[in-house]
Fold this protein.
Amino acid sequence: MARLMALDVGEARIGVALSDSTGVLASPYTTLHISRDEEQTWKAIQKVIDETEAEGLVVGLPISLDGQLHAQGQRVQSFAKRLQEHIAIPLTLWDERLSTVEAQRLLAQRGQDEGGKRQRQRGQQRIQSKRRRHAHEIDALAATVILQDYLSH
């Protein structure tokens, strides 16, 4: 089976996940920043496709719980349509309902598992850095949830 890549497209960042070569397991890969220059975003995505040798792309489509495609879903759909013009691999849109919620739950669970190992951090700069890192982890983990759901169906 081909290696697949998934994207969780947000307003500022794109979470990226990859499948293993057997197409059974999805893992977080990285988080990309969305550039104001869309061409830079396309190049960053293509770079990840090239370095991972991904043969297919799954893009999470945020469909609301009522099954409707609202503003964010329309924005992602438009993004995916423009992206398709810049890549040579097949692109599939996949319902990503609650993927970020699941990613947050998994991170919280991991935090509880590491409970006693954490040291209390002090200072505003460290807190902001931790929040940024946490947001990047959620983005990549949300992409992983999307891809694992896709692989399981």
User: Anything to note?
Assistant: Residues 124-152 form the longest helix (29 residues). The longest strand covers residues 26-33. The chain has one domain: 4-152. The helical segments are 38-52, 71-84, 99-113, 124-152.
